[in-house]
Amino acid sequence: MKFNNLFFGGIVVIVLLILVYSFSSQQAGDSYVEEIKAYRKEKDELFANSKESPLDRKQKKVFEGLNYYPVDQAYRITADFETFPLQEAIKIQTNIGVSRVFKKHGKATFQLNNKTHELLILKSTDRLTSKILFIPFTDETSGRETYGAGRYLDAEMSGNNKIILDFNTAYNPYCAYNSTYECPLPPKENNLTVKIEAGEKIFKKTELD
To answer: DSSP of 147-204, one letter per residue?
Structure first.
């Protein structure tokens, strides 16, 4: 079962792609949609060709790209951020029923569809990803239009107790593509009671048969 370095290495690769395009999108303004599309194209290329890809050799041969919602700037949200004074440990269950330890770093509060929502912001205890803000979550699309076990989001601090939650970059854990991977599941605090119709959708495994 693949977890530790392979799981965290995958997280690092995806985070780097997200950060490249999130920073440039701030500068580009009106080209935000093009920036996200460029990020998605680069991720598809990574999945199709990289040794870091979660896809096996057979999957790569027929891979035609990941499945996404259309880019919607309404889902790039600047949320209020509260850092927890004590970085308490939290055990997060994985898809194989064991637990992994993360740190409770803080809480993001935001408005969507005229309601207030909160997300617990985590940090890994692994040295490779100890500085990455990690947000596993589910929403009302989970199991219907998006991966049933939830998706991941990597956040960007915006200063002045603000944090950017760009759901257009929400992505599936590696176990959504390949069952040999072990992936953390969203904690109950991150079960959103709203549809997040942005980011990556269910992976079409039927195309790989």
So the answer is: -TT-EEEE-EEEETTEEEEEGGG-B--GGGT-TTB--BPPPGGGB-SS----SB----
- Taking only Cα atoms into account, the Rg of the chain, rounded to an integer number of angstroms, comes to 16
What is the enclosing helix (H) or strand (E) of 82? Answer: strand 76-83
Distances (CA, A) of 83 to 80, 103, 204: 10, 12, 38
The confidence score (pLDDT) of residue 28 equals 46
Q: How far apart are CA 116 and CA 141, in angstroms?
A: 18
Rounded Cα–Cα distance for residues 90 and 42 (Å): 33
Distance CA 153, CA 114 (A): 22
Which residues, in sequence order, are CB contacts of 9 under 8 Å at separation 6+?
A: 52, 128
User: Cβ(78)–Cβ(160) under 8 Å?
Assistant: no
* CA distance linking residue 163 with residue 156, whole number of Å: 6
Q: What predicted TM-score, i.e. pTM, was given to this entire model?
A: 0.85
- Residue 109's contacts (CB-CB under 8 Å, 6 or more residues apart) are 79, 80, 81, 82, 116, 117, 118
The domain of 133 spans: 4-208
Mean pLDDT per 10-residue segment, the chain (209 residues): 44 53 50 92 94 92 95 95 94 92 96 97 79 92 97 87 95 93 95 98 68
Number of domains observed in the structure of the chain: 1
